[in-house]
Amino acid sequence: MTSPTLNLREQKKRETRQTISDVATRLFMERGFEAVTIAEIATAAHVAKMTVTNYFPRKEDMALDLSDEFVGSLARTVAERGAGESALAALRREFLAAVARRDPVIGFAGLPFVRMIVESPTLTARLREFHELREQALADLLVAEAHVGPGDVVPRAVAAQLGAAHRVLFAETIRRTLAGDDLDDVAAALADAGTRTFDLLEPALGDYAVR
Q1: How many independent structural domains does the chain possess?
Q2: Helix, strand, coil % (nearest 5) of the chain?
Q3: Long-range contact list for 144-150, CB < 8 A, 24+ apart?
């Protein structure tokens, strides 16, 4: 099998996965997450029910299809920080850049999508799990970089503080979106909230994990 054939098959898989996610999310927003069945998603996406479950073993991940990007976002930003940059500085820089580009990973997803999330106990619980996994991924990275044993609480305490800051800022994006605030107003408020939040952390974490 040639490499172009492999690439074509992988592209087809990505397209199928995205189609299923898009169709499912549309149905979820129209009727509510719990009301939509896997069979209905398969019919609307013109695929077999088994195809849906092969791509998405958990129904909620069809709506939260940026989960991998979300969970890895903090650890990835810290891992890629520049020389002389601390973990906090890298996360501050990336958060403000994400606000500027209205990144859905930090909550800029539009009112219908946000309402779909908050009205579903299943999706809310899954999102909470993603926050926890994101903090754990950051903690694992900081532990590895610090070359300390699993009993050293400092990297985990740092990850908890940084993870909590991002969780609060994410919740603020959701709150303002539900309130119907204009997108530019939400972005301006988040940039200010992010700056003040990271400023509060600076005295304690500004010199931690400097590359």
Answers
A1: 2
A2: 75, 0, 25
A3: 145/209, 146/209
